[in-house]
Amino acid sequence: MPGQLYVLLGIGRCYHPCLPPREFMMKLEKELVREILLAVEAHDKPQGWMKLTVEGRSPTEVSYHVMLLNEAGLLVGISLGGMNSFHWEPIRLTYEGHEFLDAVRDGEVWKRTKEGAEKVGGAGLGMLVEIGKAYGKQVLKERLGIELP
Q1: Which H/E stretch holds residue 79?
Q2: For residues 143 and 108, is the Cβ–Cβ distance under 8 A?
Q3: What SS3 state is found at 146?
Q4: Tens-digit pLDDT profile for residues 7-34
Q5: How does pLDDT run across 100-117, given as a tens digit for each residue?
């Protein structure tokens, strides 16, 4: 409702006014997810939000994916938008974000992860993480001859 005050709950967790504009409908872009995670990992300051831009992507598209990654627990993000704007920036990766990124850092694992997600008709972030970890273990077994639980 216009004029209603909303409360920011927890670090980087805003549950209403931080949503993208109504006219903004977005699909989860797997490549952008990986690009954002790699950029946040490469950021040299582990605290404080970072100004993130991704070549060829709109600020709203990047903000939307930062919000999703925050909701999925892969990074800590913060909404910097006000009542009439939508703007999310990353702060740092979470442990789960580091784990996922380590699993899909290898190009072959990432390729298999994306193909696996497409075979099942797409996958949300949670499923993408699980597929990535499974293929990471499979490639590890192929290369080193050891099997992980």
Answers
A1: strand 75-79
A2: no
A3: coil
A4: 333 344 444 445 555 555 578 899 999 9
A5: 999 999 999 999 999 998
